[in-house]
Amino acid sequence: MIVIHGGTLLVGNGQKIENACIVIEEGKIKEITKQLQDPSLFDHAEIIDASGKFITPGLIDVHTHLGIHEEGIGKEGHDFNEISSPATPHVRAIDGINPKDKGFDDARRAGVTTVQVMPGSANVIGGEMVVIKTVGQTVDEMVVRNPSGMKAAFGENPKRVYGNKGKLPTTRMGIAALFREQFIQAQTYLQKIENGKEVERDLKMENLAKVLKKEIPLRVHAHRADDIMTVIRLAKEFGFDYTIEHCTEGHHIANYIAESGIRVSVGPTMSTRSKVELADKGWHTLLALRDAGVPFSITTDHPVIGIEHLMTSAILAVKHGLEESLALQAITLNAAKHLGIEDRVGSVEVGKDADIVIWSGDPFDLRQNVEMTIINGHVVFQKD
User: Fold this and answer.
1) Beta partners for residue 64, in sequence order
2) How many CB atoms lie within 10 A of CB 261?
3) Is 344 exposed, middle or buried (0-12, 13-18, 19+ CB in 10 A)?
4) Which of 10, 253, 339, 340 gets the most CB atoms within 10 Å of its CB?
5) Full pLDDT tens readout for the chain, 384 residues
6) What is 199-231 written as a DSSP string?
7) 196-205, long-range: CB within 8 Å, 24+ apart, which pairs?
8) How far is CA 173 from the centre of its chain?
9) Cα torsion through 147, 311, 157, 121, rounded to 10
């Protein structure tokens, strides 16, 4: 048992509790009170005094390539894009993740406790993704949700990768056409099964069928407004659930996105304008989405921006006009909802996983440090 008392608790849902007392038992949050009532009740517990400090939920990054695009080892660590074909729905991120990637240590030191790891954006359909905690000897023990979605990508990346090879797709038209072709094949495959016909197993079609049956969402890399609208159009055609990933020009069509009822992840806004579709990148996107009522998360797209800068990104969003409560939710509770795991993580509430971060001071002050990170009730990082 661990008891954290004192300090200011930012719950993650917009609430704040001063002088909080959090009781952790068997990896879960057992009790939350406004102060430590009777210390004698916890004689056998590990008592952590957080007086004068801040406490938050573990941070969540909804869009990363952590462990599958390893840092510091070059091409040998690049397991995030299977570029042998523009449509690879049968590959799975979980099969390429190295839990020993140094990025996981960076994540724990920065208070990031949960991440979604996905294939890259070279392919129109890139494969299945997984949500994991940032600690574990094997990826299997780190899993929170698997699969957590199917990756798709529109815009410059598939055009560049396959256009350079003289293969479809070389245009945005080609991307949409290939996408439709794959999903029509999956519809036919699924219809045969539903009609009781014998079919030879096809792993590609099986995985796309999960999307059509709404077992998992499609998570679509789309920066430019016209690409986002193409995704919305295709979703109406095929009836799947989806999220927009990056949403760089979302401010141009915020009302259309709001009407679609979807969630988006925004970022990595700290990056440079490294390609044409990032020309209008900026923190103003978050403000426009907020005003339109679109639920959003903030992402680093690690390793595009290091995972250790997830909180930095939230701080910069506040610097440019976003409310602190919304910025925190964008990397806690809203992020958990984006991933469909809000019953377990995203806020410090009774019954949820004990993923908690203790900060030396206000986490929105960049000068403050993570002093302790707790995942599943275990201290996984403690500042010397």
Assistant:
1) 117
2) 10
3) middle
4) 339
5) 999 999 999 999 999 999 999 999 999 999 999 887 777 677 788 999 999 999 999 999 999 999 999 988 999 999 999 999 999 999 999 999 999 999 999 999 999 999 999 999 999 999 999 999 999 999 999 999 999 999 999 999 999 999 999 999 999 999 999 999 999 999 999 999 999 999 999 999 999 999 999 999 999 999 999 999 999 999 999 999 999 999 999 999 999 999 999 999 999 999 999 999 999 999 999 999 999 999 999 999 999 999 999 999 999 999 999 999 999 999 999 999 999 999 999 999 999 999 999 999 999 999 999 999 999 999 999 998
6) ----HHHHHHHHHHTTSS-EEEEE-SHHHHHHH
7) 203/90, 204/87, 204/88, 204/89, 204/90, 205/89
8) 28
9) -10
Report the sign of the C-alpha dihedral through residues 339, 340, 343, 347, in that order: positive
- Looking up tokens 């992402």 gives 299
Could you tell me the CA-to-CA distances from 86 to 7, 27, 347, 373 in Å, in that order?
Answer: 51, 42, 38, 39
| Beta-bridge partner residues of 117 | 64, 130
Question: What b-and-e string marks burial along 165-202, b requiring 16 or more CB atoms within 10 Å of the CB?
Answer: eeebbbebebbbebbeebbeebbebbeeeeeeeeeeee
Tokens of 382: 């403690």
341 three-class SS: coil
CA angle centred on 337, ends 333 and 339, rounded to 5°: 120
Residues 6 or more apart from 269 whose CB is under 8 A from it? Answer: 281, 282, 283, 285, 286, 298, 313, 316, 317
SS3 191: helix
Give the integer Cα–Cα distance in Å for 363 and 104. Answer: 20
Output the six-digit token pair for 57.
């939920």
Contact at 8 Å (CB) between 79 and 33? no
Q: What pLDDT digit, counting tens, does each position of 269-309 carry?
A: 999 999 999 999 999 999 999 999 999 999 999 999 999 99
Tokens 């679509």 belong to 220
Residue found under tokens 């996107």: 285
- Say what the pTM is: 0.98
Length of the chain, in residues: 384
